[in-house]
Amino acid sequence: MEKTRLVVLLCFIVVMAQGVELGPNAVEKWFDKLPHAKQKVTKFHFYFHDIVSGKNPSAITIAQSNMTTKSPTLFGSVAMIDDPLTVGPEPNSTIVGRAQGIYGSADQNEAGLLMTYNIVFTTGKYNGSTLSVLGRNPVFNKYREMPIVGGSGVFRLAQGIATAKTYWFNLTSGDAVVEYNVMVLHYSH
Description:
There is one protein chain. Helix content is about 10%, strand content about 50%. The chain is mainly beta.
């Protein structure tokens, strides 16, 4: 009997993302309540650690064209990322989430990335929820804006802007720490 209760409790926990019920029926109920929901703006500040060197990189090249190594912008290179997002810029700072997805060099004239990734929150009241980023990142510009085009969990139908600013970049290793300020418009029921 105790085992059965534990299994039921664990199943219930798995279908919840920090108080947001998951699954097709839950999403349908959420949409039914949408006309009465209030829009809310939430701000985030964190650091994105893109580590391409060492024994445990968080970004790895998964594809490149025949001309990529001859291109000054590494045009055609594509990387898969699982970058830690932290409270501070230090490598041992508290992790609040992960940036998981892909970026690729999409500009032949300057260092410009096409970035498509999810901000996956792993702690706090947004644990289990995501924000989806899709946009151009001209990496040597002081500030770069990328659109938030959606989300999941607490951030269903989210939209907003992620502003990136390089905090630290190592030209030799390619490792970078990028400061992010995110403003997102979403619904609260």
